[in-house]
Amino acid sequence: MAKVAILGATGAVGRTMLQVLEERSLPIDELVLLASERSAGSTVLFKGKELTVQAVSAESFEGVAVAIFSAGATRSREWAPIAVAAGATVVDNSSAFRMQPDVPLVVADVNPHAIHSHSGIIANPNCSTMQLMPILRPVRDAVGLERITVATYQAVSGTGQSAIDALREEAADVLAGNDDPEARQYPKPIAFDVLPVAGSFSGDQGYTDEELKLVHESRKILELPDLRVSATCTRVPVINGHSEAVWLETREPLSAAAFRAMLDAEAGITVLDDAETMTYPTARQATGQDGVFVGRIREDLGAPNGLACWVVADNLRKGAASNAVDIAELLLGS
Ligand SMILES: NC(=O)c1ccc[n+]([C@@H]2O[C@H](COP(=O)([O-])OP(=O)(O)OC[C@H]3O[C@@H](n4cnc5c(N)ncnc54)[C@H](OP(=O)(O)O)[C@@H]3O)[C@@H](O)[C@H]2O)c1
């Protein structure tokens, strides 16, 4: 039995993590819930017991075997070295360490072997990258992967709890007759509109950090350093669940039927794809589920050896919390 800590336990990902932990049976005998001074003293019901949230401090990690961090990159940079020095293995949801060569970037059903090379910290990929990897791994293995092009349609929950609240408030304003609501979270209002920028602009080539994460993290996880990746990340007025339009170019030809059968055979993937019955996955449908959902599978009319599909997952679960718990499970050997 082990002591496990969650830093960021009161956030959108942290609360989802508690739900996932309730559903699983990890060998945990003590769960320490950590956040900022703001939430210290608040209580959370976990497996029938009331747990009190504590403000994180240097003493928080004493005796902790696994510390799952989901409190943003600044807090991870500050507290991960302290937790590691106290003997914990940190599973980090933030972008702080993902691209460090000595930090494995792990999707539990794609590259679980990578966790063995950690030196105290294991990183969870960004949510948009996470849901794409289980689709790409079998394609890479069977026919080789040359290029991926992705357009994301990211839910506001990917920004955190404050963005969910903002969308609800802006939407209420619009429904009350105000077509020009105050922008509460992003540079422009998100209610009833689409923002062609998710994340912040990074570098001088016109890309956002979300787009660059898709490029670099995909290459690292798939161990394909030369994979060509093009991404456009958008934010849509969806509470939860990221959708992605994905185009793949493979080294050897792969028919749409063979691609569909390949995805169907994967344990964590559900294919929902039937034009006659209008069967396809949506963000609402994926919410609350751990798997990745795929539809609109077809050959790309515009590229030789090209395929296209639509990939949906719950960004708080599959995109963050469930994978972190999967990694904790691997670490605790349960
Ligand atoms: N949302 C997603 O889909 C998603 C997916 C993948 C990765 N992530 C990553 O997961 C992390 C958390 O995201 P989120 O969406 O859960 O954010 P969130 O809803 O804003 O929650 C942030 C959490 O961090 C805590 N926190 C903030 N400042 C702190 C401080 N100074 N000291 C200690 N704790 C502090 C907050 O505690 P208080 O209650 O005390 O403020 C809260 O528990 C981020 O790194 C994000 O990039 C998110």
Task: Explain the layout of strands and helices.
Elements: E1 2-7, H1 12-23, E2 28-35, E3 43-46, E4 49-52, E5 54-55, E6 66-69, H2 73-85, E7 89-92, E8 121-123, H3 127-143, E9 145-154, H4 161-175, H5 209-222, E10 228-235, E11 242-250, H6 256-264, E12 269-271, H7 283-286, E13 292-299, E14 306-313, H8 317-332
Parallel strand pairs: 1-2, 1-6, 2-5, 6-7, 7-8, 9-10, 12-13
Antiparallel strand pairs: 3-4, 9-11, 11-14, 13-14
Helix pairs in contact: 1-8, 3-5
This protein binds NADP nicotinamide-adenine-dinucleotide phosphate (NAP).
The site of NADP nicotinamide-adenine-dinucleotide phosphate has 30 residues, from α1, α2, α4 and α8.
Overview of this protein structure:
By secondary structure, the protein is α/β, with parallel strands linked by helices. It folds into two domains: 2-124 and 320-332, Rossmann fold, CATH 3.40.50.720; 129-315, Dihydrodipicolinate Reductase, domain 2 (2-Layer Sandwich). It has eight helices and 14 strands. It has helices at 12-23, 73-85, 127-143, 161-175, 209-222, 256-264, 283-286, 317-332; strands spanning 2-7, 28-35, 43-46, 49-52, 54-55, 66-69, 89-92, 121-123, 145-154, 228-235, 242-250, 269-271, 292-299, 306-313. It has a six-stranded parallel sheet with strand order 5-2-1-6-7-8, sandwiched between helices. Strands 10-9-11-14-13-12 form a six-stranded mixed sheet. The chain has a two-stranded antiparallel sheet with strand order 3-4. Strand 12, helix 7 and strand 13 (292-299) form a beta-alpha-beta unit. The protein is globular. The structure holds NADP nicotinamide-adenine-dinucleotide phosphate. Residues 8-14, 35-36, 38-39, 56, 70-73, 75, 93-94, 126-127, 157-158, 160-162, 315-316, 319-320 line the site of NADP nicotinamide-adenine-dinucleotide phosphate.
